[in-house]
Design a protein that fits this description.
With 62 residues, the chain is mainly α. The protein has two helices and no strands. The protein has one domain.
Length: 62
């Protein structure tokens, strides 16, 4: 009976470890995506500013 309980406890602990690993993997993935977005915005900064300025100028002309 004790061996059965130990087996159940070990199975639950293993399942929790897998959840923790999955959470860490998702966290790393989110951090990587955020870094890519920041890099893209920094690289395209001038183009983005020009696009917004052109749009604002077009709206003001009306």
């Amino acid at each position: 009976m004790i061996q059965y309980l130990q087996l159940l406890i070990n199975a639950r602990l293993a399942k929790m470890d897998e959840r923790g690993a999955t959470a860490v993997e998702y966290g790393l993935l989110v951090a990587l995506i955020a870094a890519a977005i920041i890099a893209a915005v920094l690289l395209l900064k001038d183009s983005i500013v020009d696009a917004f300025s052109d749009t604002a100028d077009s709206i003001n002309k009306r």
